[in-house]
């Protein structure tokens, strides 16, 4: 409001100043034209006598020229050895002392005089009195500067009164418009307060389209935070529940008083199981999921680093990984989610591959205002997965082959991450390598 008021004040001030200067110039121009008319009238009503003197008609063009005293209009003529003044100029000290050339016109002022400041108009006249003889005269008319100043003063009072009134009205209108236009923002603030107090779950009011993007993003952010909080709570509850049984077994075995060797074996088994439970729940809790404002993560470097480590682990079988990586592909989320997602898929492919693994990434272009999506696929040349076993294989704790080392939770974690990012996991036969193809599609998002 202060900025708007200052801007309005500056605008009206500059406008008033420009109008004031324009009126002052117009008033001076009008005065000059008026004096020019008086001067031409005096010249038309004058004649030269035989004594080479100017004879001016007694009837002036304006009655004030005939009024003695401070009438405000004055006239005079100056020539060589000759002078004439209107009745209003008699006894006054007026600056009628110029000698102007023939046809020369001069307008100046305000000039000091005994009657106060005046504007003076002078014109040089050459009067022919014979075949080879002429006389030079200078005609003057003058008007008190108070006349123009009064006009300007009246105009200024009127101008600033109207501009002041217009400024007040515009300021009131601006206040009303600003309050009206900012009312949706106050509604957003009030709705956010209700969300903070737990009175509502989201911003549900109908907002103008200028704020719709903001409120949609806020709703997405609120939902994302609620999902994270719910995931953390569920993970802690699941972890506590999952650890109850191993701890109970340990307690009963310790209290049984059996021999050291069987006890050590049972304790080892339960500790290993607890380790698996903790690892799984921590991986699950680390899944952040879809976020509106997640920074894009470049995939190529993480993929190469991950594959180098796995190629060392499976060096005995000679397995290696090929890349078809799109340099424009980006993962919008947490780095831990990307590593968990890509690591589980690639490691699973190394486990089942005979020798070759193929990692593919491709950016999925987004529409206007939406960030790009991602396609991430892992192929292997292993035996593949029968279609009827795909659904069960994605369940927690289920392994494709009990003889292959693992806990059966890797693909379940992958599925949880994909769902958290509102994506889709598809398991099919690899057309290129002949084994399995795990394809993750994370769609473009706003």
From TrEMBL:
Cellular compartments annotated: Membrane
Regions crossing the membrane: 159-178
PROSITE patterns: HAMP (PS50885), HIS_KIN (PS50109)
Domain Histidine kinase span(s) in chain numbering: 238-446
Keywords per UniProt: ATP-binding, Kinase, Membrane, Nucleotide-binding, Phosphoprotein, Transferase, Transmembrane, Transmembrane helix, Two-component regulatory system
Species per Swiss-Prot/TrEMBL record: Pseudomarimonas salicorniae
Lineage, top ranks: Bacteria, Pseudomonadati, Pseudomonadota, Gammaproteobacteria, Lysobacterales
Top EC class of this enzyme: transferase
Name of the protein in its database record: histidine kinase
Catalysis performed (reactions): ATP + protein L-histidine = ADP + protein N-phospho-L-histidine
Residue span, HAMP domain: 179-230
